[in-house]
Amino acid sequence: MVESCDLIETSLRYVSFLRQVYIANCALNAIFAVIAITGNLLVLFSIWKCRLLSEPSYFLLGVLALTDLAVGIIVQPLYVLYKTSEILGMASITCVTGVATNIFGNLFSGMSFLTVTFTWVDRYLALHLHLRYKAMVTSSMYSKVITGLFMVLCLFVSFYQWKIGVAIIFSIIIVPVCLITSTVAYCKIFGILRRHVNVFHSEANLGEITDNARAESVLKYRKSVLGIVYVQVFFLVCYTPYFVALVIRTILGVSPEWKLAWNITTTVIYINSSMNPCLFCWRMKDIRSAVIKTVKGFRGPRDRSESRISRISPRDSRSNTLNPEYVKTKHDNQAQT
Predict the structure, then answer these.
(1) pLDDT in tens, 254-267
(2) Where is pLDDT greater, at 287 or 76?
(3) What is the rounded distance in angstroms from the CA atom of residue 52 to the CA atom of residue 30?
(4) Taking Cα atoms as reference points, which of 168, 219, 234, 146 lies closest to residue 7?
(5) Which residue ranges does UniProt annotate as crossing the membrane (predicted)?
(6) What is the CA radius of gyration of the chain?
(7) Total count of domains within the chain
(8) How far apart are CA 188 and CA 182, in angstroms?
(9) Is residue 1 included in any domain, yes or no?
């Protein structure tokens, strides 16, 4: 911890150069922390309420939402406190909050990063294995893998307290490995989707499917490809600058310009935890429907009952046939007649 505090205290000399950047980063992290908490809570609650955790893909999304939620609840508030104390020149608070921000930031943002990579691999397995996927891949298997990854990450993050160089070297190794893995998985997914479209084209030429079915398959293919392109590009944009900053620090050391780049890249990674729920709702119809259903479910019983009553027109006599009291009264009147 002594080495960590020494490095953090020496960064106080750059406050005058980075004051405006720190203020902007504090404002951004405060805003996006609220978005991360709200969005990831909605996704988590929707997955739990719809009982989707038993499915491996949704289990991974639940883990990702949980780690992103931790970023919004723990990491971003700590970062704001850390930079505020740094601006005010409060060395003791800067030391404690700085170490905590780096430890929890690397832990939860790193776990989010690994889970996103794992999600790409899962999507590839789902397409590659096809019908065998459900038999070979289970949520319990994924839970063991996630637990193992979390324990390994905890081990390397713990080095930050006394051997920062080890933690930095680990990050320099793991970040490109994950970026390459996700890119390879993306290319494999792209190839599988393309082969599926080629099969549809062959069947269309043989007259086995209609032109409408062919057009629909091509449209779905384009939407799928565009979707994964957007997600992968966003993933690379968020994490590649962080990797470059790590390499520069290892080669050239710490400088005011490096501190500027470092603070910007870490904020981008934290903001990524706020954007992931938006990507879920945009690209996954099941998650989008579940979230919309959850939001509507937050309305009180009175609002729902008033909504049901307002949908029933008093002029529509047919609606009264659904009322048991109306049916009973009508039956009694007929009997008296």
Answers:
(1) 888 888 999 999 99
(2) 76
(3) 31
(4) 168
(5) 22-45, 57-79, 99-121, 141-160, 166-187, 224-248
(6) 27
(7) 1
(8) 10
(9) no
